[in-house]
Amino acid sequence: MGARRTLNQGMSRLGRLTRWAANTGMGQIEALRNRATGPKPGMSDETITRKVETELFREADIPKGHINVNTVDGVVQLRGEVKNPQMMKSMEKKARSIPEVRDVENLLHLPKTPAQASKPRARTASGARKEGRFNTEVQTSESEPSPADMASRGSGRQPPPMGA
């Protein structure tokens, strides 16, 4: 009786091990088949920023409180202070490796060196980037003057009516 019981337990364990190996293998195959190969369509700049931050800040030696990540039209700007040039290069490389990132502006600097100033770029009618401001002040209504006009006159915005 004891030998039969031991044999049954061994067969049961072997069956579980076989099922586990088969299921693990199938899971790995499915993960490879379903992995993302390119950029996801319609990702917002905020989502791209969070994705870049997740990739950059995984390592413990990255100074998280000293790095700012901004994204405008898929172009990522890295700003802040890092310890060494290798860290600057590796952070830029990691940001570029994300499929949704169109370009990276590396404005990182080393300690005791001045920060770089970025040159704002705007789009032309054809969609190409050109040097200049991102936004220009456009007066949308005659009822309220622009902030620049109000500042030149030394006046401020009128307070809202009581109860509004």
Describe what you observe in this structure.
The protein has 164 residues and is of the alpha+beta class. The mean pLDDT is 81.
Side-by-side strand order of the widest sheet: 1-2-3
Largest sheet features: 3 strands, mixed
State Rg: 28 Å
Q: How does the helix and strand content classify structurally?
A: alpha+beta
Helix content: 25-40%
How many β strands by DSSP?
5
**Which of globular, elongated, flat, extended, rod-shaped describes the shape?**
elongated
Unreliable stretches: none
Number of helical regions: 4
Task: Please state the average pLDDT score.
Answer: 81
**How much strand?**
15-25%
SSE series: HHEEHEEEH
Brief summary of the model shown:
The protein has 164 residues and is an alpha+beta fold. The chain is 38% helix and 16% strand. It is elongated, with a radius of gyration of 28 Å.
Spell out the blueprint of helices and strands.
Blueprint: H1 2-33, H2 45-56, E1 67-72, E2 75-81, H3 85-96, E3 103-109, E4 121-123, E5 129-131, H4 147-153
Parallel strand pairs: 2-3
Antiparallel strand pairs: 1-2, 4-5
Quick tags:
164 residues, 3-stranded mixed sheet, 38% helix, 16% strand
